[in-house]
Amino acid sequence: MKIAVCLKRVPDTTAKITIGPDRKSITDTGLKFVPNPYDEFALEAALALKEKSGGGETVVYSVGTDASAETLRTALAMGIDRAVLLQAPGGADGLAIAQALAAELGAGAFDLLLFGKMAVDDHNHAVGPMTAELLAIPCITSVAKMTIENGAVEAEREIEGGIEVVTCSLPAVITCEKGLNNPRLPSLKGIMAAKKKPLETKPAALGAPTLEIVSLELPPERQPGRIVGEGADAVPALVQLLRTEAKVL
Amino acid sequence: MADRVLAIMEQRDGALRKVSYEVIAAARLLGDVDALVLCEGAVEGTGDLRAVGAARVLSAAHPDFRLYNPDGFAATIGELASGYSAVVFAGTATGRDLAPRVAARLKVSCATDVIELGRDGAAVTATRPVYAGKVLQKIRLTGTPAVASIRPNTFPADKPAEPGPPGEVESVTVPAFATRVTVKEIKAAATATLDVTEAPIVVSGGRGLKEPANFKLLEDLAAALGTAAVGASRAVVDAGWRDHGAQVGQTGKTVSPGLYFAIGISGAIQHLAGMRTAKVIVAINRDKDAPIFKVADYGIVGDLFEILPRLTDEIKRVRAGQ
Ligand SMILES: Cc1cc2nc3c(=O)[nH]c(=O)nc-3n(C[C@H](O)[C@H](O)[C@H](O)COP(=O)(O)OP(=O)(O)OC[C@H]3O[C@@H](n4cnc5c(N)ncnc54)[C@H](O)[C@@H]3O)c2cc1C
Ligand SMILES: Nc1ncnc2c1ncn2[C@@H]1O[C@H](COP(=O)(O)O)[C@@H](O)[C@H]1O
Fold this sequence. Notes:
The structure holds two protein chains of two kinds. Chain A is α/β, with parallel strands linked by helices. Chain A contains six helices and 13 strands. The model of chain A has no long low-confidence stretch (mean pLDDT 95). Chain B folds into two domains: 4-171, 3-Layer(aba) Sandwich (Rossmann fold), CATH 3.40.50; 201-319, TPP-binding domain (Rossmann fold), CATH 3.40.50.1220. Chain B has helices at 18-28, 70-81, 93-106, 215-225, 234-238, 269-275, 292-295, 304-320; strands at residues 4-8, 11-12, 15-16, 32-39, 54-61, 86-90, 110-114, 116-120, 123-130, 135-141, 146-150, 170-171, 181-188, 201-205, 228-232, 259-263, 280-285, 298-301. Chain B has a seven-stranded parallel β-sheet, with helices on both faces. A five-stranded parallel β-sheet of chain B has the order 15-14-16-17-18. A three-stranded antiparallel β-sheet of chain B has the order 8-9-10, with no helix packed on it. The model of chain B has no long low-confidence stretch (mean pLDDT 93). Strand 13 of chain A pairs parallel with strand 18 of chain B.
C-alpha cells in the first residue's frame, strides 16, 4: 500500500502564545514547535498499516517554511520512508494549503491519504476534506477507529450522542482523531536512520487566497471569581448567587 | 441586492436539532435567510422555521438522506450555493465534515467554529478561537459565497415553544451524485444522552471523584438541574472512567454552556481550552490554590463528597419551589 501523511508544524500546545507587533501573526521566537498532535495519529496509522501489509511506501508531506524540515525529520525518525517539504510561508487559508497538497499528491498516486482531524494552531478541520474534494476521492473525517480490508475502509467517528459507522473504498482521505492509536516515539536508531532518508524540497503551488487575517487578539480575561465559602455550608449561598446574580438557575 | 444567506439545518431521525435554530440566528446577522433541510422525508418543525426568522424554507429530499450523506449533501448545497452570498453550517460533527467539502467545491476557504459573524462591506467577517482558545482570530472571507460553521451554544436562538401549523416548504432538486462515502448506522453511545457541546448546563468531574462509581453524584446533580450533561477531564477519560465523548478540553470537546461546573478538576490549561467560553463557571475543589479558581465565577473550597449531595438537594428544593 502507498500511504501519504500530511503533517503540519505547530506551536507546542502548552506554550504561551504572544501576538506579534503586526497584530496578525504570533511571535515565533522562543516558541517550541512540534508535529501537530493529531498528525501523529496519522503517522502511526501509516506505519502500522505498512508493517501489517509487509510492503508499500509511506511518504510525509508538509507545506511550510524551511523550519518544517525538522518536523518532517521527526516523522522520518518514527519510521516514515521519505519526506517532501512544499515551501510556502505559513497561512491560515485552508483551501490554499489543500490546493498545494492536492497538486502534489495527484489523483491515484496513493492508496490512502492520512491527515489529522485538525491543526491545533488554526483549528480549521478543513485541509483533509478539502484535499479529498479537490482530488475527487472519498473522505471520512475525525476517525477514532478504522479497519481496512480488500480495498475498503470501515471507520467510526464520534458524533453528538453516538458513533457513526462509515464506509468507503480506497483510495481515500482519512482524518485522524485521538483514540485511533498510540503514536510511537522515535527510537535512537530511527533518529540516526532519518538523517539518511530522502527529504525533497520544492516550492508549494499554493492556491489563491480567499481568507484574510484581520487581527489576532487575546480573549477577554475572565473577571476574577469569588470564593463563596468553604465546605457544604457554602451551598445555599452559591445557589442563591446562581439564581439572583448570575441568573442561570 | 439584498444579501441572501443559506442556512443549513441539521436533523436527526426526522426532527430538527436545536443547533439548527442557532444557525438561523447566526445567518440572520448576514442577510435574508433561506433555511435548507436535507432529509429523507418530512422533518418535524420545518414549518416553524419561518417563525424564527427564515424567509424561505427549502427541503431537499432524497431516499439516501435518512442518515448523513456527505457526497449527496455537498452536491446539493454546492449547486444551490451559487445564488447566495454566504452559507452557514452548524459546527457539529456533521457540519464540520460538510462545510469544508462544500467550500472546496465552491473554491473558497471556510471559517470553522465561528463565535461572531458580521460584514465589512460586502465581505463576511468572523471571529474564531485559535491556539486552543488562547487567541481570537478575526478573519475576512474574500471568496463568494462565504462559508462558515458556528460554534454550538454561542448564537442565542429562539425555538418556538409549541410546534405551529406546517408552513410553506419549497422543494429543491437534489442533483445527481455518486455516493462515495456511506454512513451505515449510528450506534448510540453507551452513556451520553445529551451531548456536552449542546447542553445548556454541563457538570464535569475530574480525578477528584476518586473512582468511576462516584460519577453517580454528578449524574444526580445533572438530573436535579434538568437539561444538563455530564462531562469529564482527560485524566478520568484516559483512566477509562468515562467515554471520550464526554471529555472537555483541547483534545476533547469545546463547550460553551450557560453554566459549567468543574468538580474535582484542577483546571489545567488544556482543560480550560475546552470550557473557558462558558458563560458562568462554578468550581468545587478542596485545594484553594487550584488554577480552576482563577477562571471560575463562583467557587467553593472543600470536599466534593460533602458538598455535592448538599448541592443536589438544594437545587432540587429551589427548582421545586419555582
Ligand atoms: C496534549 C495534551 C492535551 C490534553 N488535553 C486535555 C483535555 O482535552 N481535557 C483535559 O481535561 N485535560 C487535558 N490534558 C490533561 C491536563 O493537562 C490535565 O492533566 C488534566 O486536565 C487533569 O485532570 P483533573 O483535573 O481531573 O486531575 P488533577 O489535575 O489530578 O486534579 C484533580 C483535582 O481534584 C481535586 N480534588 C481531589 N480530591 C478532592 C475532593 N475530595 N474534593 C474536592 N476536590 C478534590 C484536587 O485538588 C485537584 O485539583 C491534556 C494534556 C496534554 C499534554
Ligand atoms: N501546512 C500544512 N502542511 C501539511 N499538512 C497540513 C498543513 N496544514 C494542515 N495540514 C493537514 O490538515 C490537517 C487539518 O488541518 P487544519 O484544516 O488546518 O485544521 C492537519 O492535521 C494536517 O494533517
